[in-house]
Amino acid sequence: MASRQQRRDRLIFLVPSMTVLTVLLVYPLAYSLGLSFYNYYLPVPRTTFVGFDNFRFILGDDAFWEALGVTARFTGAAVAIEVVLGIAVALLLDARIPCRRFVNTVVLLPMAITPAVAGLLMRWMFESNWGLVNYFLGLVGVRGPGWTGDPAWALWSIIFADVWQNTPFVILVIYAGLQSVPVEPLEAAMVDGASRAQTLAHVVFPFLRPLILFVLIIRSMDAFRIFDQVFVMTGGGPGTTTQTITFYNYVMAFRQLRMGRASALGVITLLILSLVIGAWIYLLYRREKGEW
Fold first, then answer.
1. Other Cβ atoms closer than 10 A to 167
2. What is the CATH number of the domain that holds 241?
3. pLDDT in tens, 180-207
4. Is position 276 within any domain?
5. By residue range, what is the domain housing residue 117?
6. Residue 32 lies in a domain
7. What is the pTM of this model?
8. 3-class DSSP state for residue 39?
9. Which runs of E-coded beta strand occur in 115-188?
10. Is residue 5 part of a domain?
11. Where are the beta strands (DSSP E) in the chain?
């Protein structure tokens, strides 16, 4: 049992990290929550308490629901493609393919690029007249669309950009998990005559389940609050076809200068994201409580 001096020493070591968390996380969150109950228009210095009026305005605004729908479509498509593609590539790398080190370097390279730079690079690649994507499509006789300027393809161009940059994260996590799978169950499955597909389904994937949950949670959180690629590639357009909920928050805060409403929208976004993450945990671990 720890003595009083040991407990005091532990608290002293916790002070720096708790101070940083309070300054960077707790205080901004508390300030934003408090501001959400006020009518705060940035050019006017005074604030007026309005209670839940900001929340009622957000929930009654069609632009909010449209932005939420765009965000849901983006998050669902991007995360699904990244997880499936990441698992597939990680399995290939684990199969000892030729030039594996070179492939590892090439695959993980997009992780070193910041989202804004990646968005700018993808904007150039998806440019309708001289972009590389339409150039290569033209080589095989396919006329490429306008991508970022086409309402039907603008969101997909951002999805492709996000997949290109963030699939390496999934690959890295799953590949590390594959290296830690115990040898004994794999050898037992081989002795029992299990096929490769059966081994993956009944031996490998149960070990990877916590990592897949981790990847789903992290990527869902990141995809739900995407901003950089939207700002750089499409600016929320054409029209509002790619206006995600975070970009809508940016418009409300820094274009309309309605800081109280923007704070209320931030609180609503936090609640929605918490429900999404909670749903992932419930769906994947409802029969395995305590495994995490």
1. 24
2. 1.10.3720.10
3. 888 777 778 777 777 777 788 777 888 8
4. yes
5. 66-284
6. no
7. 0.86
8. strand
9. none
10. no
11. 38-39, 48-49
